[in-house]
């Protein structure tokens, strides 16, 4: 409706002209707000479930029983996930390099785990795969960058996550590393690593770099909302993000996370079904987080840009 366009004005022109103001101040505003809430994802969900899926700023105003706070882990502990990932995936990368270049067999405990995960035998019988090596390396670089961003760039408030989210986050990068090395089962490359090099390795790598730069820029912009020109922290409040891809979506850092995982699917030549399942998980997980954040911004800032989507520019 046309009058919805006046949403950000103090007094809607439509209401003034249709003389419902001032007896019913801002009726179109109320109507518009109700419309926003109509597609809100969670208002009717169980508070215990909400406690499990929300974290950080989208959890702060959640009405929940006081005892549930015993399960809270500070969100500033996010760096633990990446520290675990850097160590574990660095270790797996070293083992894979060793097996590739020094022809050392993968340790039996690892092949046993991989066989168990994949339900097939012969985890060490494949020729070394360039795709596997490259994805391992990029995953490790991604974890290292995120670790450094958590420790040196991001400014965390006293937000919290559920202890189950914390445990899941720790386990996630361990299983992810095994998934990558286990993807050798479906590998098609034969011969030397260099002879396996294909256009999709180069394209996937380029895509990975671009998506990583976008994520880094977005996280820097978020950090700048809390720091002054000198870099010192001035506030821990949540403010309205602007600049960069924040002009298009509420959460470009979540969107770029999805792009990073898609870029790794490309490094596999698009042929790893397992990795596409990982991409699907990241899509749903990050879309949910983006939607919750988007709803929060809309409810908090009356002047929130109406063209801004939650997650995917121009789409969603
Ligand atoms: N692959 C996965 O499954 C997965 C899962 C989760 C996250 N991630 C990735 O990890 C990265 C961080 O995720 P996240 O959920 O922690 O992001 P986030 O909630 O947006 O937080 C990122 C940083 O920005 C701060 N911040 C957020 N909104 C702000 C605002 N409006 N004003 C000022 N500061 C603000 C946060 O502080 P607070 O302490 O106040 O929150 C935190 O320091 C993302 O790139 C995401 O894609 C990946």
Properties at a glance:
disordered N terminus; mainly alpha; binds NADP nicotinamide-adenine-dinucleotide phosphate; 2 strands; two-stranded antiparallel ribbon
Task: Describe the structure in brief.
With 316 residues, the chain is mainly alpha-helical.
**SS-based class:** mainly alpha
Task: Tally the structural domains.
Answer: 3
Distinct ligands, ions and cofactors found in the model: NADP nicotinamide-adenine-dinucleotide phosphate
Strand order of the largest sheet: 1-2
Please give the share of residues in helix.
55-70%
| Element pattern in H and E | HHHHEHHHEHHHHH
- The tally of helices reads 12
Number of strands: 2
Describe this structure in words.
The chain has about 325 residues and is an all-alpha fold. The chain folds into 3 domains: about 1-30, no CATH class; about 40-195, no CATH class; about 205-315, no CATH class. Helix content is about 55%, strand content about 0%. It contains 12 helices and 2 strands. The protein has helices at about 15, 25-40, 45-55, 55-60, 80-100, 110-120, 130-150, 165-180, 195, 200-225, 250-265, 275-300, and strands at about 70-75, 160. A two-stranded antiparallel ribbon has the order 1-2. α5 (about 80-100) runs antiparallel to α7 (about 130-150). The longest helix is centred in the last third of the chain and has 28 residues, at about 275-300. The radius of gyration is 23 Å and the shape is globular. Residues about 1-40 have low confidence and may be disordered. Bound molecules: NADP nicotinamide-adenine-dinucleotide phosphate. The site of NADP nicotinamide-adenine-dinucleotide phosphate has 23 residues, from α10, α11 and α12.
